[in-house]
Amino acid sequence: MLSYIGETMGNLMHQTAFLNLTWGNYLMIAVACLFLYLAIAKGYEPLLLVPIAFGMLLVNIYPDIIASPEETSNGIGGLLHYFYLMDEWSILPSLIFLGVGAMTDFGPLIANPVSFLLGAAAQFGIFGAYLLAILMGFNDKAAAAVSIIGGADGPTSIFLAGKLGQTGLMGPIAVAAYSYMALVPIIQPPVMKALTTKKERAIKMENLRPVSKLEKILFPIIVTIVVCMILPTTAPLVGMLMLGNLFRESGVVRQLQETASNALMYIVVILLGTSVGATTSAEAFLNISTIKIVILGLVAFVFGTAAGTLFGKLLCVLTKGKINPLIGSAGVSAVPMAARVSQKVGAEEDPTNFLLMHAMGPNVAGVIGTAVAAGVFMAIFGI
Asked: Quick check: helix, strand or coil at residue 332?
């Protein structure tokens, strides 16, 4: 009887995670707890960081939660493996864009078409990081997948990594992209302040012109036709973004707009966040390539912020002080966080300065721009 009890207790002990975890697993568990702290205590993009951090926590305690059927004894994959397949198949990133489109007002972009140029300028970080990634030893497709982090766009990063066959790097790329999206309020202001003067930051911009309902309805249709005709591979992202926006602006499918921007959006965020977090097992995440990806992502994001701000300074000069350069930094596609940062930095110089709506133009242009950049890479590689 005692031997049976001893054997049972021994088997139970060996089944616990304590005896099966490596130092790397404990390190990743600590990182997951740090992310949860930043999300809950500091409020850094909690809708993204909470599911990502919890997926990270789960996989480093129980690796089989993302195991494929081939890796298990019973031929049944782990729960998060099936969530992750929807990332690889580009389903979840595309649905995220549907929800973003349903929640976003493109009016500021339509009212000030110059915003397209600011959004395009901020994509410099992507192509700059692409060249740097090649110099750091990544192959061309891996470099493209990593560089898209510069757009601060998690769904597009996941989408492009899947399309270019870089699923092995998808976890670090996605975590880096979403982490930098959450850290926009910390990373961007020092760059913006270093490149602008107090006088420039205090510039007040004229109110945007009213945008008619017809313009708002035609915009997603025209953008879809133009962009997808030039770069058909962007259809899953740009098409879903514009479909969601058409739901919003048409006014005749309110139920679809509400579903896309609320229930569906939050379901997709849960599935995508936990599955992305679950790709960060210690074995997959703690290596030199991951460190390079994190560094390159930061460099790309800083370059993108700087390029948008500098182009804003150029427009400020050309318009004789009518454009505040700070709105150029919102050209990265972290919507609406980057626009809020532009507002915050501007208000620090003059509390009566309201830049938010002006910054939303480059911000939503950046979403389109990052998707276009992904399409350019796919066209280059013949995908």
From this structure: coil
Q: How far apart are CA 83 and CA 85, in angstroms?
A: 5
Tokens of 70: 């081939």
CB 43, CB 183: distance < 8 Å:
no
> CA-to-CA distance for 68 and 49, rounded, in angstroms?
25
H or E stretch including 112?
A: none
Amino acid at site 2: L
What DSSP string runs through 191-253? HHHHHS-HHHHTPPPPPPPP--HHHHHHHHHHHHHHHHHH-GGGIIIIIHHHHHHHHHHHSS-
Q: Give pLDDT tens digits for 108-163.
A: 999 999 898 998 888 888 888 889 889 888 899 999 998 888 776 788 888 998 89
Closest CA to 279 of 92, 96, 53: 53
| Cis peptide leading into residue 336 (ω within 30°) | yes
Assessment of whether the complete model's pTM goes beyond 0.85: yes
Q: Which residue has the tokens 């081939």?
A: 70
Degrees (nearest 5) of the Cα angle 201, 151, 244? 100
Q: What is the 3-state secondary structure (H, E, C) of 349-371?
A: HCCCCCCHHHHHHHHHHHHHHHH
Indicate the length of the chain as a whole number.
383
d(C-alpha 15, C-alpha 12), whole Å: 5
Give me the phi and psi of 162, to 5 degrees please.
-65, -45
